[in-house]
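Standup notes
- DV: blocked on the single-chain target, sequence here:
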Amino acid sequence: MAERRVIELVEYKPVELPVGELPMKAAALLHDRYGKHVHIERVFWDGGDRWRLINLGWAGYIPLDETLAIALMPKTSIGRLFEMLEVAYDLSIFEQGNDLYEVAGVDDLYERLAGELARRVLLRLRRGIYRSYVAQEEQSRYVR
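- DV (later): unblocked, structure below
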């Protein structure tokens, strides 16, 4: 199986591709299904025939077919996004001594989130799981 080619689109930064690099079927899928995420247009001036793709402010990954995908990259680094989330939601991803690492790209994003989720689950288990009292009545000859 051939390795999938990934086209990276940074927020609001146009990328132009020769028509041969983006099959018509993939372009149609991008336009019809992901039109609110990626603007796509065909450019004919300057004697060329190209596709112009613009990320409309999203971050993510769009598989177009078995050989081609689009990576929607934010303007800021993934690490900087986590710093903003830490401030906004009082996360502890970037505390000193934390054994998590810097995120290099979108591929590392899920690993980073899974690590934070696992850390928080273990912390919650150490504190104890919340359980409310359950009223239970029964007829018995003995006191419990």
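- Follow-up: The longest strand covers residues 5-10.
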